[in-house]
Design goal:
137 residues; 2 strands; elongated
């Protein structure tokens, strides 16, 4: 019985598989460039329709299948690439109130009060919660 890597079998096997995948990639180009003449027979309620011409759907299926096999067998070379951009810094949504002008703080206070009042109105209409008193400044 032979060992797992006796006589460099594993390396030769891996090289042969890799060459087979490279040939498959070349075959994709050949299939895309070469027309395949054929006949399509469609039977429907109005009878049989025969169409003769390039079998583009069949070629597309062959190409998609070979691309799928290559993406699964050699994902680093033929798989879908996900590009991550790490060059930007995350943006913060935190606002420092101390840096705001008095007018901006007043406008923010009014916006928040309207939102609280609207929420209380919806809750009271739904009967879920009694109105919450407004906090004193």
């Amino acid at each position: 019985m032979r060992g797992k890597n006796e006589d460099g079998f594993a390396e030769r096997y891996a090289q042969a598989r890799n060459e087979g995948y490279m040939r498959m990639a070349d075959e994709i180009l050949d299939v895309a460039r070469t027309q395949e003449e054929g006949t399509t027979v469609i039977e429907g309620p109005k009878g049989t329709t025969v169409r003769t011409g390039d079998m583009t759907e069949h070629r597309r299926l062959k190409i998609d299948t070979m691309k799928w096999v290559l993406a699964k067998a050699l994902p680093k070379l033929y798989g879908d690439r996900v590009q991550l951009d790490h060059s930007t810094q995350p943006q913060s949504n935190i606002i420092d109130i101390d840096d705001m002008s008095a007018e901006d703080r007043q406008a923010l206070r009014e916006i928040l009060e309207r939102q609280v009042q609207e929420r209380q109105r919806r809750q009271a209409a739904a009967g879920s919660v009694a109105a919450i008193p407004r906090p004193q400044d």
